[in-house]
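User: For documentation purposes, I need each entry recorded in a consistent format: the amino acid sequence on its own, followed directly by the corresponding structure tokens. There are two entries in this batch. Please keep commentary to a minimum and don't merge the entries.

Assistant: Recorded as requested. Entry 1:
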Amino acid sequence: MSGPLRIAVVYPDLLGTYGDGGNGLILARRAEWRGHEVELLQAPSDGALPGADIYCLGGGEDGPQVRAARTLHDDGMLARRVAEGAVVLAVCAGYQIVGRSYPDARGDRHEGIGLLDISTVNGSGPRAVGEVVAETVEGAPRLPTLTGFENHGGHTTLAESAVPLARVTAGVGNGDGSGTEGALAGRVLGTYLHGPVLARNPALADLLLGWALDLGDLPPLDDGAALELRQERLGGVAGQARRRFRPRRRVH
């Protein structure tokens, strides 16, 4: 790659509700620790989206989500850069935005920008809130167990050209009855996992960096702190499951 790796956090003023902007910082640091020059760009919605190698979209509320999707569609840069090989990580509202359609708070349908062949509707049951554990599936890149926190009311259905990222073992994920979580096509990856997801899943961060840098295996890093966080969160979910299914003592 000639020049610095450019990482853009997309519309933090609209899609910054859940701290997902931290994903851009994690990507930047993991690239810098390996000796790569990096530009980390904050790209607010009142300006043109810059050209970048990796775009990070985060979660947001219903009104800002609609404004973000319309602005991205009118701007056109994200779709152009994806066609040129840019990487996209889209989380929660961002995940819905990069699909074909998504609902607002009233359930009215809005067009996404069509980077993933997915569609989202409002779910009829309780909102999906809590920890998620998921295992990557055949057809998706092989990654260690994924961990994150979801907070969404959408049910997302994947069409034929979109591959599920993982299958949930705890939590809801896509919520369409398939038991899957997230989706990917080419270098566009969507997920409902907050956390930020790349803080909890450094292997996922390195997958995105490898795509952007056109590298296979990246030099290893000391991920002791990240792995400690992963184990703490995975252990918490396992502990909840044990408590939930603990047999009741018989009373004579």
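Entry 2:
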Amino acid sequence: MGLFSRNKPQEEEKIEAAAERIIMKQMTDNEEAARDLVLEIKNGNPVCLNFKNLNEEVGNKYLAFFIGATVALDGRTTKINEYTYLFARREDFLDGSLKKWIDSIPR
């Protein structure tokens, strides 16, 4: 290649919107599953969890666990309704798709 030749521009990878990566789960009393879900958050997959089927004590334990893990990952927790929360890294909110997804949920 000559000094002034141009390389073909590489095709940009299509980046999937954060809202398309949401993992939705009904939370159960399973510590291993909870750890796996935190790893999903860490890997850039927002997690939406419903705690309704857990008793109050167990539900609060897991909610505190996920909130703490999300804070440690420099993320945010968003309450969807009385029993449901979205956990995601700060950068997952940057494309705006999570806000649109949250705003589209009937209240």
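Summary note for entry 2:
Confidence is low (pLDDT under 50) at residues 8-13.
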